[in-house]
Predict the 3D structure of the following.
Amino acid sequence: MISQTVSPATCGLSNGSINLSISPPGIYDYLWSNGAITEDLINIASGNYTVTVTGSNGCSSSATFTVSDVGSTISLSAFPAANTNCNAPNGSIDLSVSPAGTYVFMWSNGMSTEDQANLLPGTYSVTVSDLNGCSSIDSFVVDDQIILPAVAETISPSICGESNGQIDLTILPPASYSFFWSNGSMIEDLQNIFAGTYSVTVTGTNGCTASAIFVVLDTSSNFAISVTGTNNTSCMTSNGSIDLTVIPPGNYQFLWSNGATTEDLLNLPSGEYTVTVTDASNCSSASIYFIGEDLVDLQITHVISPALCGVANGKIDLTVTPPSGNKYVWSNGETKEDLVNILPGTYSVTITAQNGCTRIESFDVPESENIIVDIYTDLQVAQQDSILIIVELNIDIGAVDTVIWLPDDLFSCSTDICPGANHPKT
């Protein structure tokens, strides 16, 4: 006689059992439908199991038992969404449990909801349990699919040291981006910039950033201009000059404010001169130079001797500095420095120096006043053998240089007009 104790399988697992009891007790052989030859079956799944029991006397008996399943098998599936944001994680796991029912969830990150959101990239495991104590464990991977901006550029160099360089960016994939440049600009491309180093940070709507550094070159030759100027020193022919030097040496074009296109200028009058120098890269630089006057002024002093007594015995004695190389033209036709034996009058002279500079001066040669002598005699005042003679002059007596009395021994007096007083008797 075969009797049994059947323990059901639970949660769809192979944990059921069939425990046989054979009467009368003895030695028996067992053959199960699953191939087992033991008396009892353990760790079996739910289902029908048949056993044939044979005694030592050759007699046999068969029986079939059903192992039921207590609790359902929990099937898990999910749709993980990758993280695509660099600032706020946005990965997720949408979990599906079959069959439908009431379950308890325990995730490896401590969460207890069925689905997960705002996840970083990584592996997440979940244990799902039903009211029967059945559970199922599975793991799911949230990928990292952030897309960093890819920055490409086209750089136009600065020309001639001016702010005319450019950086033109291309960002992939095409999307909406924000830009922050090292010079403070917040637009995609930079225009009208000087040569130098520029960095940019590009940020996408997903918070992901990319940075890049660019160098804008300067194509100018960076030349320098120096000058040696010589002032004009001539009143006849301009002789000022400008000697221009451009460093480094090269092929340059010159345009001066007076129209000249040579590097240096000669035979210049005093004034302001502007030059524009252009190199092979069409870069240019302008400078202004001034040519002054270094003319030597003639310094003239003179001594005039008047003409005396209406005779041509006047004189003009000049002293001219600088003394050499001067030419003279007098109003009376003379070409010497000094005039001698000239009558009273006005004389002008034009003096031309070696540098062609001239100066005109006029001089007045005075004449001395003629001496008029009136002599009167008064016989009434004659005493003894003397005669009183009265002399009247039209000039001051102090201006008289020479008085001659004839005969010199005829007179006796003590006044200035008399011989032997202040004037000789000659």
Observations:
- The chain has six domains: 2-70, 75-142, 150-216, 224-291, 299-365, 372-426.
